[in-house]
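Researcher: Structure for this, please.
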Amino acid sequence: MTQYRHALTVVAATAALALGLSACGSGSENTAGSSPAKPTFTAGTTMAKLSAAGKMTIGTKFDVPLFGLKGLDGKPAGFDVEIAKIIAGELGIAPGDITWVETPSKVREEYLEQGKADLITATYTINDERRKRVTFAGPYYNAGSTLMVKSDNKDITGPESLKDASLKVCTATGSVDSENIKQYLKDPGKQLVLFDVYSKCADALRTGQVDAVTTDSAILLGFVSASKGKFKTVGETFYDQPFGIGIKKGDVEFCEFVNDVLTDAEKNGSYAKAWKDSVGDAAPEVPPLPDLGPCE
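Model: Predicted structure, token format:
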């Protein structure tokens, strides 16, 4: 544990001791259901500011089944959302005090830099280019690029099949796949179709406007599950995509705090619960928490 997690333990223990001494002096017992000690953090840190405010803004996807999908109640649900709730909870912030903002791939760095989001959990792949603008906690999940096609498609078996210049493949603007897939295409200018969100790619595949959709396996898992047998993934993954939690560049203390929360979440079972409650029906086996990267 880092100094921040240790501070929480000390504060809680001190509060408990004070309550115990007070009870002994008055001859009364502690009231059942009394509120736990409020988290305390080093003054001036992001954790202290957010905890004192009692609220925060979190960016996620609104169109990705199982990871970040906006429901009929107007709130997003999924594994990314549950991970964010765990972090907020350790700051003393209840789910109802979180403001959720949609952060498709092309706006994530901008939202962090402009303070439009305190952190982002949005199938956000960690890579060197993004590290220039973002500090990443995590990763909290490892995915890999793959392809999704219609279930009756027997011609596309992997990225190598896309050398046929007549085939069109779709992905999201600003995603790592929008660049990585180009090496497999004969004519990227004609074959690559870009939309702002992945749900539009899924719609284009459904209507025959494109022949395949490419992004990480986690996102495609959700679309395949929601398609009721109309879509499938093909081939092996061909590019590693570790999902990180994006925070403002240079906020190393906040990054270390988030990494501690992830480590504890795996130990206490809340990480597994988050997976089972969101992705479990489609993928029952809970993945291990990946090795956490450096905060920089």
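Researcher: Any notable elements?
Model: The first helix runs from residue 3 to 26. Confidence is low (pLDDT under 50) at residues 1-36.
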